[in-house]
C-alpha cells in the first residue's frame, strides 16, 4: 500500500498528559497543515484491537505471562495498523497515534525486563518496519506522572498503571535511551509545563519538521 500521508506518534510515561494534548492538537494541526487528522490510540484504535486492549489491561489478568503481554500488544498493533493507520496514510491524511512501538519497547522490553531489542524486533515484524516520521515524547518524572494519575483519574488504575515505581522508572529510562538512539525521529517535550504550553511546543515541533506555516 502506497503511503502518502504523515504518521506522528505521541509517547510518554503514564500521567504525561498525552491523551489530553492529542485532543487539543488535532484542530490546530488541521488548521496549519490543511490536511485531515485521524486521532487514534494504542493498544486499540480499531474493533479487534480494542478487544485485545481489554484483555491486556484487565486487572483480573494478573497471571498473564510477560511475553504473552508483549505478543498481545504486537497483535493489537498489527490489527490497528491494517485497519486504521495504513488506510489513512494512503488517503493522504495525518495519523496522530497516542502510543506506538516505542511504548512496547519501554513497557515490555524494559519495564517487564524481557529485552528491549527482542521487543523491538517483534514489533518490526508486526508492523513491517513502519515507523512514524515524527514521535513526540512528553517527558515527566515517573513520580509526577503517577501522582497525576492518582489525583486526576476518576476510574480505577489499569494493570500496568498499578505497577510499582521501580517498574515506571525502568520505563522512563528506556524512553530516554530511545530518545538518544533516535534523535531525528523522537523529539522531547517538557510535559511538566502547563498543558497549553505542552500543546504549543508539540505544534511548533511539527511545524518545523513538516514545514507547515500559520
UniProtKB/TrEMBL annotation:
Keyword Nucleotide-binding: yes
Enzyme Commission designation: 2.7.4.9
Catalytic class of the enzyme: transferase
InterPro entries recorded: P-loop_NTPase (IPR027417), Thymidylate_kin-like_dom (IPR039430), Thymidylate_kin_CS (IPR018095), Thymidylate_kinase (IPR018094)
GO molecular function, one term: ATP binding
First and last residue of the signal peptide: none
Thymidylate kinase-like domain ranges (all copies): 10-200
Keywords: ATP-binding, Kinase, Nucleotide biosynthesis, Nucleotide-binding, Transferase
SUPFAM superfamilies to which the protein is assigned, alphabetical: P-loop containing nucleoside triphosphate hydrolases
Catalytic activity: dTMP + ATP = dTDP + ADP
GO cellular component entries: cytosol
Annotated ATP binding sites: 12-19
Keyword set includes Lipoprotein: no
GO BP term, pick one: dTDP biosynthetic process
Similarity comment: family membership: Belongs to the thymidylate kinase family.
PANTHER family: THYMIDYLATE KINASE, UMP-CMP KINASE 2, MITOCHONDRIAL
NCBIfam families for the chain: DTMP_kinase
Function (record text): Phosphorylation of dTMP to form dTDP in both de novo and salvage pathways of dTTP synthesis.
Protein name from the UniProt record: Thymidylate kinase
Originating organism: Bombilactobacillus mellifer
Taxonomic lineage from the root: Bacteria, Bacillati, Bacillota, Bacilli, Lactobacillales
Gene from which this protein is expressed: tmk
